[in-house]
Amino acid sequence: xxxxxxxxxxxxxxxxxxxxxxxxxxxxxxxxxxxxxxxxxxxxxxxxxxxxxxxxxxxxxxxxxxxxxxxxxxxxxxxxxxxxxxxxxxxxxxxxxxxxxxxxxxxxxxxxxxxxxxxxxxxxxxxxxxxxxxxxxxxxxxxxxxxxxxxxxxxxxxxxxxxxxxxxxxxxxxxxxxxxxxxxxxxxxxxxxxxxxxxxxxxxxxxxxxxxxxxxxxxxxxxxxxxxxxxxxxxxxxxxxxxxxxxxxxxxxxxxxxxxxxxxxxxxxxxxxxxxxxxxxxxxxxxxxxxxxxxxxxxxxxxxxxxxxxxxxxxxxxxxxxxxxxxxxxxxxxxxxxxxxxxxxxxxxx
Length: 350
Prior knowledge:
The protein has helices at 14-22, 32-45, 77-87, 92-100, 141-160, 176-187, 203-221, 231-238, 241-255, 264-277, 296-302, 319-337, 341-344, and strands at residues 56-62, 103-110, 122-123, 165-171, 259-263, 285-289. By secondary structure, it is α/β, with parallel strands linked by helices.
């Protein structure tokens, strides 16, 4: 696996930043979470005057072999149909990217469809979907390495255009299944508590999903102790190409000191995996939204993350991150544009 040089944010300027925040003409701490966000963004960018330059959104698509086991109410073809819809500007992700000025990159990492004649989709296809992890690893080690590198390279493309803030979404029918398994293994949480309805399973469907995933975990782990499993082995055995590419993107973005916006159950699972690989990568992540998928809040609790929004979104395209962007923009405007006590000639009373 590709290695990354990820360091914790340098905190030598933290006191100066806090003094700047506290000297804005407001009661101390009166802008709450905005002050916390401003501090984090300043530390990431190592400046008391941060900026949100050329925001980019990666929309990564891939299919999953485990979908063949009926673990999702949505059929596999919805993945490629939605990918085409995104190229026409018709998805929620398109609307929010337009609204908030994000450049959208639609990337085929492993969709079970030939997009070779399709404009608007970046071709980074590793295979036509992963294998069925009920019976065998989802991907080979070489495919895993390629997916990590693909995500990293996509971030480099964004950086070359001046990007300093990145959000990531996914399109892949069935990908709540590997996310639930990762959550269970990395969080040491019973699998049953990690499984939800996904795109709309009823109680019988959730029960079937649990049985399939339990069997898959038994097949993989019956001869080993899960806490001794190397993280990359767990990732490649159960993951999807779009998920592994997202991890590679997060790690490269952290290495390059980008602000990383994390949204949704699947992307939170990818963030959890990235943190297990490189704990300091969390310094660069802002967790933007908690959805209604069963276990999402529990997974956020594993990494002690406080999401900015709880809107009940479950599109999986990264829309929560995009909706949260104005809050982050407000935090940056606060520290850059608000007057201070001295300039405003207001008595500082604390």
